[in-house]
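Prompt: May I have another protein with tokenized structure?
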Amino acid sequence: MIRHFIQKYLEPKALVLMYHRIAAPETDIWDLAVSPANFEEQLQVLSRTGEVVPLHELAARAKEKRRRKHLIALSFDDGYIDNYETAKPLLEKYRLPATFFVTSCNLGTEREFWWDELENLILHAAHLPATFVMKVKGVLIKRDLKQEAELSYELQQQHMHWKACLTPPTTRRSELFLALWTAMRALADSEIQQLLQQVRDWTKSEAVNRPAYKSMSTGQLAELAKQQLFAIGAHTVTHPALGHHGFDFQKAEMAANRDLLQELTGNRISLMAYPYGHYNADTLQAAEAASFDAAFTTEGSTVNKRTHQYRIGRFQVNDMTGAAFAKTLQKWALT
């Protein structure tokens, strides 16, 4: 048993790092944004290691069970505009390769992703009606906001510092937001958009498309794909939580996204990342049926010889300095 533990501990591993946004938004409730300054410090750490490889290379080595000691690969999810405007030039500066997993529904539009708009509507509106009542798939969501109908400075500060991924809701508004987000995430996009419109109607507001929250354009996507440092990966059409849906739905989302990205880039799209990291047994089969070489979750785990090619883990990188990042990399490598 001890020998087995030592062998497992010392065996060659690899790390896949996951980013979403390179920006400094006022609120970041899911802890997904890294400031440009901290991102550059993190790239400086990575550039000194000499261990960063393209994700497809790491995935191929995992599939072939080859040694992959001291390898790191970078990935970005969703396709936000800051990936092109901010991450791209910094990655070029340090000559570090990266794969961008792109959800295609908002490409070339001014639209925000639904979760960003929902957050803006519920947490940041200056005034809301005092009572909220809505049914989602037969489940009644009802909240009395009381004095929180008006957005005070203190309430605004609470929302700015709340991390939904780490702590329970701290306000009535954040309770409402999380209840809606949880219920809506499980649905197909057509249902999500209907519910989002109901929320807009309740707030008596129109969709507000903030430039910093849009996706990159199709031209920007094509330019990324032309560069040798970068690759494009699939991330579905509408960003559903795949594990809540059946095989046919999942495969259709994957295949339509793959086909559009291939058309826009002229390249084969060989890698896939599951939105929210959400998957079930059908998801793994759908990824294989859609002819992806490998697929990635959001589970924080290293890549080793036992890693399933359609369930490769990634570590979410948070907004931290280069020094803190270096220590975190060491900790992850021992996972």
Q: What stands out?
A: The two ends are 18 Å apart (CA to CA).
